[in-house]
Amino acid sequence: MIIDDFLFPSNWTKTTVRKRVNPNIDLISKDEIEENIKIVLNFISPINQKELIKRASRNFGFKSTSKKTSNKINEVIDYMFSKQIINNNNGEIEVISKDK
Prior knowledge:
Distance between the termini: 34 Å
Helix content: 40-55%
Structural class: alpha+beta
Oligomer: single chain
Radius of gyration: 14 Å
């Protein structure tokens, strides 16, 4: 199946975050970026948005975070805000609790 120009197996159920040798943010799906953000937030929450972007990019194998990479990760963060998956609480990003 194709989602946003990325090919996924027809039996796809879970996105795996992969560390790359020569990462290119254009070759990383929004689903994988979202899953990576969730992984970072599972370990550090709340976290400053700039630090969240940096840690997510390092998980993919980036040695430094370019503006292009930062912008793409930030787009996914904004999407996650809009879907109420995460929340910005006074500049700190955290997962919205399912208990609420």
